[in-house]
Amino acid sequence: MMAKTVACIIARTVSTRLPLKVLRNISDQYTMLEFMIQRLKKTRAIDEVFICTSYEPMDEIMEDIAKRNNVSIYRGSPENVIERMLAVGELTNADILMRITGDNPFTSTEYIDKQVALLREKELDYVRLVDVPIGATAEVMTRKALIKCSELMDPSVSEYLMLFMFEPMNFKCGVIKPFEEDHSSITITVDTPEDLIRTKLITSAYEGDPLEITLQQIVKIIIDKELPHSRIKGGGQIKLPFGKTVAFEDFSNDMKRRVSQSEMLTMYA
């Protein structure tokens, strides 16, 4: 049987700080969600793209988006992200699943082929990019490992999947480092109106087809133009499961520990 890789875009219309954010335009041609879909469809390693949303009536519009963009859709638990992904894995008989969060339009699709290759070649459970801006990496994992993870964690906190799967003490993890420098203090995720403005500034600053923009080009635009709302402020707090928080510095140190215990592939010259 041929191996199969399926990308799961985790997206809903609910958002407290920026309602309907995945449906908002980030360029003249694309909404945030459709921008992500079209970029993922260009990736060779992906066999199928699913929008993974909820069965709530407010997410009905996702059906139209999936049909218009010729991708599949799964509607499941509003809260349990893992349930949705595992259901897609079972429906498609995928051996590799990919988690792409709907508020990360600049997920670095140019590295996905390498992520999948590293996972397969080293027989890993989980692969991500490191030292990249927040919101830049897809998470690539085996369905078998995701099943194991679902048995270890409370489903009510499955939006924090990374904290459980990117744990070399429990899973065989791999990381790809695209930059010599550490750009993890930059953010390109979209949570607020200010983030949306920053995203539009990036797509408008790029002179070519915005679907082709690379992570290196995004970082260069942010640094060269000193775009606002692009940096994690020192002393900031990172949200954890069950309403807890941790200082950004402590979170970064824990990430470095996980990276040091993972299989690493460097991509810079």
Automatic annotation (TrEMBL):
Record Gene3D superfamilies: Spore Coat Polysaccharide Biosynthesis Protein SpsA, Chain A (3.90.550.10)
InterPro entries, sorted: Cytidylyl_trans, Nucleotide-diphossugar_trans
The organism's taxonomic lineage, starting at the top: Bacteria, Pseudomonadati, Bacteroidota, Cytophagia, Cytophagales
Pfam families in UniProt: CTP_transf_3
Name the UniProt record assigns to this protein: Uncharacterized protein
Coiled coil: none
An annotated GO cellular component: cytosol
